[in-house]
Structure formats: C-alpha cells, structure tokens
Amino acid sequence: MTVFLCLDANNGMRFNGRRQSRDRGQRADMLRLAGARRIYMRGEAAKLFLSLPVNVVPTEDFSRVPAEACAFVERAEDLSCLRPEEVVIYRWGCCYPADEFLPCAYLAGYVLVDRTEITGSSHEKISVEVYRCDG
C-alpha cells in the first residue's frame, strides 16, 4: 500500500477542518504515481477528482483499504489503521496555520528513498518525498 499525504513545512495537515491545499499539480502527480491502482480517500477529497477518469474510491473507513491499493489521507485519525509499505509526502515549502499534524512517530521505521520537486498550480515548488518501510 502507498499512502499519500500533503503537509506544510511543520507537518501540518489541516486547519479548522480544511485541507492544506487543492493543488492540481499535486493531484496529477499522485495519479501518475498510483498508476492503475485504486486510490481510497474520504468523500470530501474525492470531489476534487470528479472531472478526471481515475480509480478514486470514496471511503470513510480506511481499515478496509486493500494492501495493493493507495490511500490519500488528509486527517491524522485515518492514519492509525494504515500500515503502508510506502509513504509519499507532498510538502509545501511554507508554514500555514495548522491545528492537525502528522503524528511525530508515524514515519518511524521508514527511510527516505527519494526527493524530487514538481511545479504546482498553487505553489511554484512542491517537494515530493518518498519513504519506504525499513524492514
């Protein structure tokens, strides 16, 4: 399983119940990395993909995400039941107000294996960090 996350420079995930970004470049890159695999995400996120022919599966229960699939996670609470082999972080190079953060220990046992940059629609530069399970 691959988990996709969007974080600011301080690992912020959400503020006042809202996502960090609606960046089209990030979504396009996530679809490219997922390939033909299904991407599970909350219904509120799935609305961002309505105009695209993709394998998006709306869910509110991430414990049912199959091991061969992907998950686009925008809430820290949804991470507790996911044990991915790979975590892809789209990181904005700035800090936004945040009241929900990636749990400090979530990447324990993972190793950074790649870091690239993409151009986004709302951010000139988005870092793409790929972590893989170390064991």
What is the topological layout?
Layout: E1 2-7, E2 12-15, E3 18-19, H1 24-34, E4 39-41, H2 43-46, E5 56-58, E6 70-72, E7 86-92, E8 100-101, E9 110-118, E10 126-133
Parallel strand pairs: 1-6, 1-7, 4-5, 4-6
Antiparallel strand pairs: 2-3, 2-8, 7-10, 9-10
Strand order of the largest sheet: 5-4-6-1-7-10-9
CATH superfamily membership: Dihydrofolate Reductase, subunit A
Task: Tell me which CATH architecture applies here.
Answer: 3-Layer(aba) Sandwich
Rg over CA atoms: 14 Å
Write down the oligomeric state.
single chain
Residues in helix, %: 10-25%
- How many alpha or pi helices? 2
Order of helices and strands: EEEHEHEEEEEE
What's the CATH topology name? Answer: Dihydrofolate Reductase, subunit A
Mean pLDDT: 91
Keywords:
Dihydrofolate Reductase, subunit A, 7-stranded mixed β-sheet, mainly beta, 135 residues
Protein architecture, described:
- This protein has 135 residues and is mainly β.
- The protein has one domain (2-133): Dihydrofolate Reductase, subunit A, CATH 3.40.430.10.
- It is 11% helix and 35% strand.
- The chain is built from two helices and ten strands.
- The protein has helices at residues 24-34, 43-46; strands at 2-7, 12-15, 18-19, 39-41, 56-58, 70-72, 86-92, 100-101, 110-118, 126-133.
- Strands 5-4-6-1-7-10-9 form a seven-stranded mixed sheet.
- A hairpin with a 2-residue loop joins strand 2 and strand 3.
- The longest helix is centred in the N-terminal third of the chain and has 11 residues, at 24-34.
- The relative contact order is 0.29.
- The mean pLDDT is 91.
